[in-house]
Structure formats: C-alpha cells, structure tokens
Amino acid sequence: MSNTKTLPVLEIFGPTFQGEGMVIGKKTMFVRTAGCDYSCSWCDSAFTWDGSAKDDIRKMTAEEVLERLNFLAPHNFSHVTISGGNPALLKHMGSLVELLHAQNVEVALETQGSRWQDWFLHIDDLTISPKPPSSLMKTNFEVLDSIIEQLMEAGRTAHVSLKVVVFNEEDFLYAKLIHARYPQISFFLQVGNEDTGDEKETDDLVPKLLEEYEKLVDRTMQDRDMNQVRVLPQLHTLVWGNKRGV
Amino acid sequence: MSNTKTLPVLEIFGPTFQGEGMVIGKKTMFVRTAGCDYSCSWCDSAFTWDGSAKDDIRKMTAEEVLERLNFLAPHNFSHVTISGGNPALLKHMGSLVELLHAQNVEVALETQGSRWQDWFLHIDDLTISPKPPSSLMKTNFEVLDSIIEQLMEAGRTAHVSLKVVVFNEEDFLYAKLIHARYPQISFFLQVGNEDTGDEKETDDLVPKLLEEYEKLVDRTMQDRDMNQVRVLPQLHTLVWGNKRGV
Ligand code: SF4
Ligand code: SF4
C-alpha cells in the first residue's frame, strides 16, 4: 500500500499570494504535506500531524501533484510554496522540485530546520523557521548549524532566509540569538498569531494583530542588534483571517 | 545663498520600518528631500513640492545629513531610505550615498524614473515607480527605457525593482504594460491610498485599505501575465495611518 515514491498531501490550492516572509506578496500556489516531527503549542496547522485530518491525506506522486497544480491554475502560476507540517521529512520531495523547475516554476519551502535534505540546495526560496520557547519545542542547534553551514558552503545564501515567530519577550531574545548565530542569512521577524480561527467571532482580530505588529516593530527599532532584520505581519491573516472560523 | 553641494532636506527621521516595496519590513531611517518634477493628482507628499512647507526646507551637506542620522539613532541603523519628492533631481545625492556606504549603511531610494543620475548605480535598493494614468502624469518612455537599460547593462538588476501604484483598472493595465516592457526587473504592485490623512476620522481606513488590497490581489491572481509579480499594501498606513490626521 505505502509507496515510498509518493508524497502525503493534505492540500493543494491557489493561485493566491504568499502572506509572509522572504517573498511576501508573491503570487503562488500552495502544496501542504502531512506529518511533523514537532508539536508546537500554537501550531496553526496541527491538523497536518494530530490525526484529525488523516482521512484527507492523499498519497500522490510528484507527477500527480504537478497535474493537480496545472489543473487548478492552467498557465496561471510560476511559483509554488511547499509547506506542512514539516515537508523536510520527505526524502522524495526532490522529484517534485525537479518537475516544477522543468516547467519553469520556482519553488519556496518552509521547514523548522530539524532535518536536512539534499534537495534543500534546489529550493529557490528556502525559509528555515526555528521555533522559539513559546512553542515548547527545543531547537537542536547541532542540526541547525549543519543545515545553515551546508547551504552557505553551497553558495545558496541568496536563496535562504531565517524566520522566527515572536509571541513574547523570551521569543524575541531567542530570535536575537538565532540572528547573531547566523548573521549572513537574511532574517525575518514575524508576529505570532494566537488566533487559531476555530472559536468566537474575529472582528477584533485585525486591530489586535496590527497592535501586536506595532509592538514588535517598536521592540525591534530599539534594539541595536537587530538593525538588519525585517519585521512582518501575516498579510493573509489580515485579509482573510476574520473570514475563516465559524 | 544657494550652495550646489547641499541637499534640500525636508525630513530626517527613524529608526522605523519600511512599509512598502522591495525591502518591506526592513528597519530603516528616512531622509526626505524637497522638489518634484511631477504633480501627481493623489501625491501623498505634495508638501515636498507645492510650496506649503518651503520654510521647513533645510539646505544640508551630505556630512550634515549623516551627522543628523547618527544623532537620531546612534549605532541603531544600517539602512537609510531616501525619498521625496523626487530625489533623482539632486545631482549631489551621490556624496551622501558614498558617506553612508563608508559607514556600512545600505541605501534605498525611490524615484518615478523621469531622470537619470549616475549615482543610481550605487543604490542598494532602487525602486523605480512610474506613475499610472490616475496620477494624471505622462510617462516619458524614452527616459524610462534608458534608465532601465543602463541599470541592466551595469549588472544592477538584483538591486532594482519596479513598483506601480494601482487605483483602478486603467492603472492595472498600465502596470501590466510596464511589467511586460521590463520583464527582467522585479515587479511590485501596490494598493493606492486615497486617504491623504487630512480630513475626517479614519476609523474605517484599515478595513477599507485591506478590502482594496484584497481586490488587487484577486485581480492579479486571475491574470496570467502577472505570475511573477508581488502585490503589497502599505504596512505603515495599516499600522499608523489611522493615528495621523485630525
Ligand atoms: S513545526 Fe510547524 S507544522 Fe510542525 S508543529 Fe510546529 S508550527 Fe506546526
Ligand atoms: S512623483 Fe511622487 S512626490 Fe512627485 S508628485 Fe508624484 S507622488 Fe508626489
């Protein structure tokens, strides 16, 4: 039944825009894979790993994923974002990346940096997003060091960014530590979003998120160690966040 | 009285974050110069050229500008954004760029692309923002072609972006034309902001801007000629827009 050449896919959708990080605003398709080696306290895609959506997982070959993308948006995309879960768990992701490149499509991918894959070297916009203390996860710096080192040695610096989500001051200090440890890598701070979209009315969501964003901006502006960073909100949550939920 | 080695400066402030375009979210200082060869119908900094702030213009040497920046934010910036008006009217801007680089500070600059200056070749993040029909200005394509050509010939493509502000469908078609004319240059679409911050209460500003942004996103998503573009709002207006004005 299980085919090691397939990918466990939960969602394929788009075209839409990338709401965060190094290519914020970019027109893109999304492919979301199932499975994660973390269980962050505030994970906004826990359904990818907590079993709640396990019946929705489809085992797809790279060719099938590409077919589905082309069916959804014929000739209407040139960028695909792969997210999870942790897509870096999937050794065979490399063939999808190859297929997309063969069609002149660029590929972005986000992972927390807990596992290396050789196909990292072919990702056009690779976001490594180590998780801060509020996630209750523990960063394995040996692995993270080795990932960043391999990317730099391969001359991929322009294709890589670090992103840390910040919910509180402790997270901010963690972000500083990450930025100081890898100063050559573009660094993005992102406002944490505690709203998981599953309860009450969210009329207050946008003002609340903008307020949190302003606080993070202010904190960063005061900090001389953070002169090179970029601070961003999640644009898709500002636009659509209050339309999800009930 | 007039000293050709000085720059007509209207504002120097920061550190704050860049709210738009190719380095959105980046910690930066702002230097705003006086004077513009355009008079866009919706110009949000008309005070730089309409005479209303002419008593606030200070003639400053590049050294004086740098001193002021260092006084405002000692050791607390490594990026400066020069805006106007049209800073490309100022031949002597080159010396400020040099001074900033000597202090390891990167320089961003925005201009509508109506004039060439040799120091364009040294700007780290150069945004060329041709004005769409709703501005009531007319693009001189001979000049614009020659600017883009010179930048490309000098290998500056990675340091340049095009940005078009869109208020309506006619503007969108103009944006498409610009993007098609210079496909090698990173292209940003930005939502127009008609609120000039000088009238009534602006409680509705954020929902209105987000709605306009969503419309521009939707329009772009449907358009196969716009697969490579990035669509962005003005983040500073979302955060602070409703705090300005009476
Ligand atoms: S690493 Fe990402 S997908 Fe995995 S638990 Fe954390 S937030 Fe969720
Ligand atoms: S080019 Fe810029 S500064 Fe000049 S009038 Fe137009 S919007 Fe205003």
TrEMBL record, chains A, B:
Q: Tell me the SUPFAM superfamilies matching this sequence.
A: Radical SAM enzymes
Sites where the protein binds substrate: 17-19, 32, 83
Q: How is the cofactor bound?
A: Binds 1 [4Fe-4S] cluster. The cluster is coordinated with 3 cysteines and an exchangeable S-adenosyl-L-methionine.
Q: In which residues is S-adenosyl-L-methionine bound?
A: 42-44, 85, 129-131
Known HAMAP family for this protein?
QueE
Q: Which family does it belong to?
A: Belongs to the radical SAM superfamily. 7-carboxy-7-deazaguanine synthase family.
Q: What name has this protein been given in UniProt?
A: 7-carboxy-7-deazaguanine synthase
Record organism: Alkalicoccus daliensis
User: What are the leading ranks of the lineage?
Assistant: Bacteria, Bacillati, Bacillota, Bacilli, Bacillales
Question: Gene name?
Answer: queE
